[in-house]
Hints:
The protein is built from six helices and no strands. By secondary structure, the protein is mainly alpha-helical.
Amino acid sequence: MSLFFDQTWFDDRLAQRGLNKSAVAAVLGLTEGAVEDIWKDQREITPEEVARLGELLGVSAATIASRAGVSTPVPKSHTASEPEIRSEMEQKLANIEARLSRLEGMVAELRDLIAGLTRK
Length: 120
């Protein structure tokens, strides 16, 4: 699952289907500005919008939710298969591990910075 909205994936998927963000706006019943907010990860997508985007892009609602950011809900009507659930969980774990690694690096940098300041 993506931590943030995966603009590149959505743009590529739209291009593959010969569509653009105007089509997304029309299908979701939103303004193009609201779609831009989604693309910039400044507006969350509702479960209904997840389902509609999935239909538009020819993928499952679970795929849309996994590419739209960590807090994106999957519509309740979607029942994921065991491989989908396993794949989603593995992706979530990989994202958590990557984030933890970045945080550990930042802590080490701060520790070095503080140590350098106390030596002066």
